[in-house]
Amino acid sequence: MQDCVGEFVHINVEYAGPESLAVGAVFSKDIAFGDHAWTVHCFPRGAPDDDGAGEYLSIHLVNANRARNARVLFEASVLGRAASGAAAASAAVTPPGLYCTCRRLVDYPAKDSFRWRLPKIARTSDLAEHCVVGGHIAVVCRVVVLRHSGPIPVPPSSYAADLDSLWPRKRPLGEPDVSFAVDGNTFPVNCRVLAARSAVFKAELLADGAPDAAPEIDRGMQAIRPRHEIRAATFRALLLYIYCDRLPRDGECGGGGGGGGLSTELLRKLLAAADLYALDRLKLMCAKKLWEEMSVDTVSKTLWYAVRHSCPEPYYLCQENGNFFYCKS
Predict the structure, then answer these.
(1) How far is the C-alpha of 324 from the C-alpha of 235, rounded, in Å?
(2) DSSP category for residue 106
(3) pLDDT digits over 169-224, tens only?
(4) Distance (Å, whole) CA 276 – CA 78
(5) 8 Å CB contact between 287 and 152
């Protein structure tokens, strides 16, 4: 289970119409739990420097105690009337419904700010029609601190043990004896190293999977192609894990999102490759990194990759924590 603590706060906003409050008018409430202290600011017509100021309700979260590093789920919901039109007169005594909800996952402290915004939550022109009850709008906010306890555990490295299996018979490690052709790129590798790290490579490269049955490589023969469809950047990242036991750093694999960094898309492809080549620890390393960088924009595709490639941990975490990344407006 995800290790987390959190609290709700209710903000009652006086509202007589879009022009009844100036841009920047604010209603604030404090949230405190454990050693965490926060202030929630609700701007019915937006803060002056918000995107959409004057036309949208926005909510800001400010960290009041500049606490240690953590990951925070910030959620805001605007309640709506249970009735409209001719039935609006009875709405004051009817339980409210949920009009809109917005969520954001943030890391703090940020490099340049201790304030996070949820802009454009709802149009101010719609609030009077759908949300005002007795001259007020009800806003409910939730702050959940996800403690850094490693939500997706990664098993200890077996790198040393994998390569140690090569030493008793003094098998060579350095000289490439086979090469792979991927996307017009050639990757010279040592088949015994790949076989020591991956049972799939072992079956593909060593005859009958026997440790001493390395194929005789004709140096003039054409490079072989991987049996599974894979891009060059992904294969390079796969080899980096096999040889160095780590994920790529920015710029090491190229093709990862414009700047050659470790993009979300490259991590997804690497997770898929790790599944194909039975590299379970690499798969969990990718899943952990993808979870740490999860957002509303990436959650759907990332969960599809994870579930498709037998790595359900990110999906379970989303379920356990109430579908954090769902956003409705």
Answers:
(1) 32
(2) E
(3) 444 455 788 889 998 888 888 888 899 999 999 998 886 544 444 444 444 445 78
(4) 45
(5) yes
Q: How far apart, in whole angstroms, are the C-alpha atoms of residue 259 and residue 311?
A: 28
Q: How far apart, in whole angstroms, are the C-alpha atoms of residue 3 and residue 164?
A: 37
pLDDT value, residue 314: 83
For 283: left if phi > 0, alpha if psi spans -120 to 50, otherwise beta; the answer is alpha
**312: preceding bond cis by omega (within 30 degrees):** no
The span from the CA of 191 to the CA of 56, in Å, is 60
**What are the tens digits of pLDDT across the range 145-166?**
876 544 677 777 776 666 656 5
Q: Which of 202, 39, 43 is nearest to 127 (CA)?
A: 43
In this predicted structure, what is the pLDDT of residue 33?
A: 78
Q: Which helix (H) or strand (E) covers residue 203, if one does?
A: helix 199-205
Strands annotated E in 15-135? 27-33, 36-43, 56-63, 70-80, 97-108, 115-123
- Sheet of 4-14: strand order equals 4-14, 136-146, 70-80, 97-108
Closest to 194 measured CA to CA, from 185, 186, 207, 203:
203
Intervals of the chain under pLDDT 50:
1-2, 85-95, 149-150, 168-172, 209-221, 255-260, 322-329
CA dist 310 → 115, 247, 272 (Å): 38, 20, 9
The pLDDT value given to residue 329:
31
Question: Residue 276: which of 239, 223, 230 has the closest Cα?
Answer: 230
Task: With residue 241 as reference, give the H or E element that holds it.
Answer: helix 232-244
Distance CA(309)–CA(42), nearest Å, equals 42
| Length, in residues, of the chain | 329
